[in-house]
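User: Fold both of these, please.

Assistant: Here is the first one.
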Amino acid sequence: MSKRKVIAITNQKGGVGKTVTSISLGACLAKYNKKGLVVDFDPKGSLTKGLGYRDSNSYPYSINETYMNYKNAIIHTDESFALLPANISLSGADIRLSNVMSRETIFKRVIDTVKNDYDYVLIDSNPALNLFTINGLVAADSVIIPAQAEPYACDGLNDLLHTIATEKKQLNPVLKIDGILITMTDARTNLSKHIANEV
């Protein structure tokens, strides 16, 4: 049996294409007959809404309930991959979990109960370096870092790389970086070429 893989799509900067990358990668894997689960790990629920689940009443549970009660919240979408949805109910969960024992590994325990049902689990991280992001990194085997081709693309990358190195050292020794994905770029321009080289 091939190894199951959990990939975190992570950058603490918003608007760099994490959600689009997660959906697109999920769809591409499905095209190649890989069974995938895409996890929305952002209280804004952009991925969930982008897949057509705009009304939180249209699904019984979200990742928030899975976090707290381990209920099965997975939705089988029309996109040939499954979804673990999120909505505004996730907001503030990091504060509620701040005093919980082993709080950095809560999500890993949830993912470990379902990941053997999938070839790939893709985690669409929220745009911050907080407990959600740390939980995503601890649960993941690897990280893809989307970075927009703009003049300040490298700002904050050092903080993220430091966080990844810390999690690798302290909580997840197998974690590796698959790569930095340049998004929203025009390879014909000198600026985009310069930014890509800088990254």
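And the second sequence with its predicted structure:
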Amino acid sequence: MNTTANANAMTAILRQISLDWNRTISYGRSYLAIFFAYAPGVTCLMAATGSTLDSVAGAVIGGAASGFLMLNITLFSYEQMNNHHWMNGIVPINRNHQILGRFAFLIVCDLVAGLEVAVSIACASIIMHEPVKVTDAIGFAAMTVLALVLLNTIVQPFLYRFSPYRAMAAIILSIGVIVGTVIGLCKALPEFEKTVKQLAEAISRHQAIALAAFLIIDVLALAFSSKISLHIYGSKDI
């Protein structure tokens, strides 16, 4: 009985992943080509115009993170704009599996983003004739994946609770409050700014430990976010 239930659950999750993939490619292959070529293209352009490898790495990580985060928002926007959310009520997938499938699809996309970052940095190093350690490229890619997973777990309850536009407004407002608070604390408390710098230095010196800690945070955030999302989504009428 448990085996059958697990198989049915996996089938439902895979069905949700397939549905999200169809939503993603609905904009056309040219959209996907531009989406995936954007970060490597900008990276190679920066490398060819004399940028440093550190600035190139920062740009591609930021670009990939923001682009793939918008992909999550696009899925919800597609449902709303095309009145597609009604399908969630007739496709034989319960809400829990819809949420798990959405998270699984996003994690796959995050892994693709990490691969894109690694490839982009490798291409930039070839153009700049500046060797990059494989471990460094993997570290940049892993940080991109972990950061994206955490960001998606944070924004997901907002997207289930509000419309995509209101969710974006709430997310931007939350980010502004957090950034403003950190800047204010750094200005008001020199000790806080010193602690932040020491933490950044410690992370750079002990990347493996930092990534392991980040992974634990992501797992906890995924569990917490999925429960909140299910609570919000489960109380809605489809």
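The mean pLDDT is 78.
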